[in-house]
Structures are given as C-alpha cells and as structure tokens.
Design a protein that fits this description.
The protein has 118 residues and is α+β, with helices and mostly antiparallel strands. The protein has 3 helices and 6 strands; from the N terminus they run E-E-E-E-H-E-E-H-H. The N and C termini lie far apart (35 Å). InterPro entries: Mito_Tim_assembly_helper (IPR052604), UCP017292 (IPR016694), Znf_CHY (IPR008913), Znf_CHY_sf (IPR037274).
Length: 118
C-alpha cells in the first residue's frame, strides 16, 4: 500500500476512505499525531471516516451528528494499523487496544467520546 500524506483531502485505506487534514496511512492527522493516534471514526451524519472531530469540522462542511446509544453495534471505528472496522461497543470496551492486532490506541480519546457517541 503506497499512501501519501495529503493536506485537506483523503487517503484510501483498504477500500475505506479517511478524510481529514494531513492524514497519514495509519489515520493520524494534523490535530492528533502521536504514536497511539491510530483510529478513525465514521461520522453518522455523512457515513464518512475522519481521524478526529476537528478534521470533520474543517473538511465536511456540515455539523456532526453523534451515534445514539442503541447504535453502538454499528461498525464506526477503523484501526489505522490493521484496517479492521470495529463496532462502537468493541472500541469503547477495548481497553484502548485493537482487539485484532493489539496496537495501542490513545487512552485520551475517551475524553472525547461525547463528541461522537451518546
């Protein structure tokens, strides 16, 4: 897979497109780019993956809509390492590790759950 960092735009990842600002091949962006910032979130409002709420705000052109509690069975999280799509429940209960490849997710993302999930 030969992916390049792009300014505003998108990166195709194994049939999954991730839009945002300076998105790398593991879904890091201009706003969140530590070693553990390796997830993208599918926004309910546009059914599109973004690395973070700030990328959505800058690129999408519309207000975000959060996932309802009863929708937590939906696949809405992408592991940037193994490219597995996880359900919201699987992600929230993952202990900040991908259940498939065991890569560590940023534990601090939990403080932003309210921006994405009810």
């Amino acid at each position: 897979m030969n992916l390049k960092i792009r300014e505003k735009g998108s990166v195709k990842m194994k049939k999954v497109e991730v839009k945002g600002v300076k998105v790398d091949k593991q879904t890091r962006c201009e706003h969140y780019h530590t070693e553990k910032d390796i997830i993208a979130i599918k926004f309910k409002c546009c059914n599109t993956y973004y690395p973070c709420h700030l990328c959505h705000e800058e690129v999408a052109g519309h207000e975000s809509v959060i996932w309802k509690r009863e929708e937590r069975g939906q696949k809405a999280i992408l592991c940037g390492v193994c490219k597995t799509e996880l359900t919201i429940n699987a992600y929230v209960n993952s202990g900040s590790k991908c259940p498939v490849c065991k890569s560590s997710f940023n534990e601090g993302c939990q403080t932003h759950y309210h921006l994405y999930f009810e």
